[in-house]
Design brief:
This protein is mainly α. The chain is elongated, with a radius of gyration of 19 Å.
């Protein structure tokens, strides 16, 4: 099901959205839908992860949860202490 939404944007933001859509070879509507979907998905994943960590019985269990989700990779050179 699709529905419509009237959106009022500052002119500068509208131009940037149009430019990004053109660079990505998609319509403005497709670009906005993609961008919103991506942002909402990230926020939902963050909330889910926070909830799971808060429900962990201990800090060690929370770390084990994170280790099971995050791939085992070396840090970027700029992230080393």
């Amino acid at each position: 099901m699709k529905s419509s939404l009237t959106l009022h944007l500052p002119e500068e933001l509208k131009q940037k959205v149009e430019q990004e859509a053109k660079l990505n070879k998609v319509t403005v509507n497709q670009y906005i839908v993609y961008t919103l979907t991506k942002e909402i998905s990230v926020r939902e994943a963050e909330r889910w992860l926070r909830d799971r960590i808060e429900q962990a019985p201990s800090g060690e269990d929370a770390l084990q949860l994170l280790e099971s989700i995050v791939p085992d990779r070396a840090p970027f050179p700029e992230d080393r202490l």
